[in-house]
Amino acid sequence: SMQCFPGLVLALSSLLGALALLQLSLHLRVPSRYGKHEERLCRPRGRLPARCAWFLQELPSFLVPALLLALRSPPRLEPLGCRLLCCLFCWHYFYRTFIYPFFTRGRPFPLQLLFFGMLFCIYNGFLQGYYLIYCAEYPNDWCTDIRFTSGLLLFLLGMGINIHSDLLLRQLRKPGEVTYKIPQGGLFTYVSGANYFGEIVEWFGFAIATWSLPAFAFAFFTLCCIGPRAYHHHRYYLKTFTDYPKSRKALIPFVF
Ligand code: NDX
Asked: Which residues cross the membrane (predicted)?
């Protein structure tokens, strides 16, 4: 049966950090080509409806850690922190896999990115799940540690912002519509990338709560991946809408 190999965790986390830097260097200037940054009507056949695409892409991030948690024998009962944290991760991806895709009104998603996105989700789902189920050691009172409680609070706050902002974006369109409008309300009052801001806060909260290398590597990846994307969205809005709110920032309210 499986056991903890600390070297494997270190290697996979380092590679995740390296992928973050690669992602940053590839997409700081040019955005990832999906959604509003995909050239219109190019490769019409190489796409899948947004619903299927997001479902398939994010499913492994839910399934892999959920299976690791369920199948570990003997089941890991101590300490509580490990299971709780693994459940938090799965909870986010339950939303992203089983709820978000069924309501999205997004444009068809490029197959090629879907393929890499799935690989990424398998990789990260395995790393986070494997670490928490097989490697992590927490004192039995971790749930009352300031890192756990403040991290959990940030996680919940970020998740709330992320889900609320996803909802506001979805309401900009009627079913079947694919046009872009100026997002309004919630944190969009302050930033163009409100959903991304929420997601970044969420994963840094998770990293603080787990206090682990894999979780910090993933938070860093998230920052490198969707941080620049928020900036590209912001530039797109400024270019497209002459009446775009002048005081709105790209990612961080009042700052950047
Ligand atoms: N999926 C994370 N790199 C990514 C997919 C692509 O979950 O190989 C990262 C994620 C993957 C990427 C993933 C990782 C890196 C990959 C990349 C492909 C290549 C790359 C694998 C896994 C790679 C190397 C080589 C380095 C390994 O039509 P539409 O779709 O634009 O409609 C949109 C709509 N909308 C509007 N509607 C009306 N008016 C407007 N003004 C609108 N603006 C937007 O709202 C969508 O339907 C919806 C949301 O759009 P958008 O663009 O704001 O968000 P989106 O980027 O689609 O993300 C959706 C949610 C969001 O909450 C975000 O926080 C979360 O997913 N997310 C997204 C990306 C990554 C991630 C989280 C994370 O890293 N944690």
From this structure: 109-134, 146-165, 203-226
CA-to-CA distance for 236 and 37, rounded, in angstroms? 8
CA–centroid distance, residue 210 to ligand 1 (Å): 25
Distance CA 88, CA 56 (A): 20
If residue 229 lies in a helix (H) or strand (E), which one and from where to where?
helix 213-240
Which pLDDT does position 140 carry in this prediction?
A: 87
Which residues sit with their C-beta closer than 6 Å to ligand 1?
19, 22-23, 32, 35-36, 50, 57, 104-107, 113, 116-117, 120, 162, 166, 169, 172-173, 178, 180-181, 183, 195-196, 199, 222, 225-226, 229
In contact, 125 and 61? CB cutoff 8 Å: yes
Of residues 70 and 156, more confidence is placed in 156
Strand partners, 48: 109
Query: pTM, whole model, 2 decimals?
Result: 0.96
CA angle 194, 24, 44 (to 5 degrees): 75
- The protein residue whose alpha carbon is closest to atom 16 in ligand 1 is 117
Q: Break the chain into its structural domains and give their ranges.
A: 7-32+45-238
What is the tens place of the pLDDT at every residue in 102-158? 999 999 999 999 999 999 999 999 999 999 999 999 998 999 999 999 999 999 999
The ligand 1 atom nearest the CA atom of 172:
38
Cβ atoms of 236 and 36 within 8 Å: the answer is: yes
Query: What's the mean pLDDT in 210-218?
Result: 98
Is-contact 155 205, C-beta < 8 A? Answer: yes
Q: Tell how far the Cα of 65 is from the centroid of ligand 1, in angstroms.
A: 21
